[in-house]
């Protein structure tokens, strides 16, 4: 299934962590599966001078550390001579002109026009100069006849609030057509996230119950055991809401809540996601109406190991009030979801790593088992595990064997690994391949990013005003601040992820 168009993949921020951990392994695994064009070149761009030889060694080394499969020597040699490094400042047009000359000379030696995929994987403060210089140099508008042959992938964070996201979209729109733009959210590349649409829309048993008549609440948890590690400088300016909720969690929400699209066309899918996001009611910020909770971790034990508190992490100022945990309760004001709470939470240094969507169904009428406490009737749950232990579990009530009538939840479970084996492609493999092929389905459209920021920016502003006021402290290794439990209890629910249902 090799892509026939000769391609040059240009990575800005090539000596950064993401290139080593994710991009290089993804590119080489695509090559191993013969999914890259026959003629595929890689040009890394960075500010610190590096010779081609050193850049090649750096990539080879990162493959040894991070690739999901071993890359054999002959596979490496197939690509090695097609890797180059270009040193240049991102705000210097001249450096882009030189880059263009390199591209033109490759085209000449190939005797064929190439497509260019520009991957912006730098800190966000240089996104705009790079986009502008791609525009000014003419690289943004390369085309074959009427089709664009240049594309741009933009890493997160896509802005830091509504205003900055709009500004970034403006810069992009001045330089590129939206069809050339691929805003990354790596969650969309995860196999299990892609499978969400398949599960929802290829099985007829879900659609009839996927609405306010049967669903009592929906919970989305993206929890991590790790702390901020060496990323304190970035994280303290971001926080859980920007870092995880605005993108990954909101995307999971959109895919869970959207209406069936009329086709698998990228725009049809993204239109439905946008409609669902647009229907979210602004969240209550204050007092009794508050639908938001934030917290910061203090020291504690995570899996038996002592972890330090956030304020003691490297690069965190003593007066920081950045949240490492956020929980929200929101409502989608449309025919399908009116009145159903969607609880979202994400945090670092929690008791477990889990990305899950849990759909809790309403209880059956209490005529036979419901009102009698002896039976302890549990609600039906559908838990979609994005990671780890990828799979789906449906919890039903069953009779405990014995002479007495007792009920007990049982699980109908499907695990990806048991069914399909391990070693599925990494998110970045799928995303880079789709961008090469011009398929934007698994990328965020400009309006999606703005709607999500529009919803969360008032919360960020409010927390910024409040500073430490209302910022709860939770011990590392727990499931987060008590306020998040209260948020659900007040609405008759409890968090599902982390609770033992057996
Ligand atoms: C990134 C965040 O987008 O996602 C990180 O910046 C976070 O803070 C990471 O750790 C989590 O990704 P995953 O794939 O490990 O769930």
Structure notes:
The chain has 502 residues and is an alpha/beta fold. It has 2 domains: 7-155, 3-Layer(aba) Sandwich (Rossmann fold), CATH 3.40.50; 188-489, Dihydrodipicolinate Reductase, domain 2. The protein is built from 14 helices and 19 strands. The strands form 4 sheets. Strands 18-17-16-15-9-14-13-10-19 form a 9-stranded mixed β-sheet, sandwiched between helices. The chain has a 6-stranded parallel β-sheet with strand order 3-2-1-4-7-8, sandwiched between helices. Strand 16 and strand 17 (391-399) form a beta hairpin. Helix 6 runs antiparallel to helix 13 (446-466) and helix 9 (240-257) packs across helix 13. The relative contact order is 0.13. The model has no long low-confidence stretch (mean pLDDT 93). 6-O-phosphono-beta-D-glucopyranose (BG6) binds at residues 156, 224, 243, 355. Residues 156, 224, 243, 355 line the site of 6-O-phosphono-beta-D-glucopyranose.
Strand content: 15-25%
> What's the number of structural domains?
2
In this entry the ligands are: 6-O-phosphono-beta-D-glucopyranose
Rg over CA atoms, rounded to whole Å, is 24 Å
Give the CA-CA distance, first to last residue: 45 Å
Number of helices: 14
- Helix-and-strand structural type: alpha/beta
Helical residues, percent: 25-40%
Low-confidence stretches: none
Q: Tell me the overall shape.
A: globular
Supply the CATH class of the largest domain: Alpha Beta
Q: In total, how many beta strands?
A: 19
- The average pLDDT is 93
CATH architectural designation of the largest domain:
2-Layer Sandwich
User: What is the CATH superfamily label of the largest domain?
Assistant: Dihydrodipicolinate Reductase, domain 2
The main sheet orders its strands as: 18-17-16-15-9-14-13-10-19
What is the name of the CATH topology of the largest domain? Dihydrodipicolinate Reductase, domain 2
The major pleated sheet works out as: 9 strands, mixed
